[in-house]
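Co-fold these.
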Amino acid sequence: MIEFHQVFKRYEGGHEALKGVSFALPRGEMAFLTGHSGAGKSTLLKLIALMERPTRGQIILDDINISNVKDRQIPYHRRKIGMIFQDHRLLYDRSVYDNVALPLIIAGVSDRDIPKRVRAALDKVGLLSKERQLPIQLSGGEQQRVGIARAVVNKPPLLLADEPTGNLDPELSEDIMNLFAQFNQVGVSVLIASHDLGLIARMKHPVIALKEGRTIRNELAEVDFA
Amino acid sequence: MSEVKSKTKRSSATSYKISFRDRFNTALKLHKENSLQTLLDILRQPTNSLMTILVLAIALALPSAFYLFMTNAKAVSQSWDGGVKISVYLQDDATENQAQELLTQLSLRPEFEQVTFVSKEDALLEFKEYSGIGDAISYLDKNPLPFAITLTPTSSFADPKSLESLAQELTTLALVDKAKLDSDWIKKYNSILTISEQIATFVSLMLALGVLLIVGNTIRLAILNRRDEIQVIKLVGATDAFIRRPFLYTGLWYGLIAALLAALMVNIVFVLLKQSTSQLAQLYSSEFSLLGLAPSFTLSLLVIGSLLGLIGAWVSVRKHLKDINPQ
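Predicted complex below.
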């Protein structure tokens, strides 16, 4: 699903966030990305979503070399990826339902299908009864689940999560992780950046550990340079 | 067949792809929703948008008022053109018989509607009456004024060019000393009109630029206000067109509403002025009546207003949406 070939990322100002990262996440696999803050986890996820471009190296997503994705094609690229953030990034002036419906409206799903799919997504995260509420009326864990519903509502083949449990207590964190595992079981590839090592260990999924922009542990196959 | 296809698609875990027809229908629906929503937003928050719209309306009303003024000023000068006369002054040594002969000749020509003979005595009487130095003239031992013929051209020869060439031609006739048009002041009036028209065009262009800038700035503020929302929407895969559309509609509505208001303002001024101008025209025993905004002009005002709003919004959106990227 995702392949990184010797990817480097240097930001303007000289900070090198990634220094030659290579790994391959097979289709339908779920993996964790760990490391201290500043190790390059967020940068790595941003490169996949084309929020940043790599300085050097190749990234292949869904058999497409994403260096070839032009700026104007980025929206279509992002529709293949469901993204979840530590700070949820919801629209706080719209209801839970409208937040989850947003990717469907953007993608041009027909009016008939939107309610069904929004409710299916909300049902999966257990928030069906709260569709009329505003995000601000929900707890942090619930807001995160709205974010997950929004990420999965148009059934993307890949989910990326950046510290999805960063602000949650351990019990809620485990719920959220289990939710990701459920999506993974129906075939969605999942990559989660997290520094919650205890939780990651219990989940029993492959781990990539970054330190100062380099891979220090890689339980996924490293891709060969052809 | 397609039914089966869509079913298998929906049942799969990953189906982020959408059929073309659904995309097209949704685009149409979005246009409808965006246009309605932005209009309602403007109307619902009149305090936010009223000032902008008023400024825009004034900027559009001024050129329209200029235009209306120019149309009327031209109409006035046209109603005068018909009344222009040519005065032909004969040489001092011409006798009355020769003068009468010329009069007959001229009255046979098709260019002139009316030909009047002005004898030396009539001219003197008139001069005494209107010049204000009548007493001084009575001390002269001899009438210094020549015979004159006043010609009124038919309407087909009443345009400034034909009048000019007629006067030229009349000067070349034997016995004729001078042929004078009493339309010199109309020429001056018309050249003042031309200059005013050029100034009005220039000012109108500046005001149109002003409209562009005002709409552009309003849209810029709207974009900055919704910065976070735009970032989120970009993250979930919105195209620039999707993000742009509501702002473009907002600009279009601003322009259209302002143009409607401008047309209203100009029409109110027109109604207020109509009464007093018709009184003035009566004093000059003219049938001139003030012309209002033609429907075609009102229509073009609305189109121009909407276009200026749309273009202003477009420029602003192009410039500012690029800078907002998800972090």
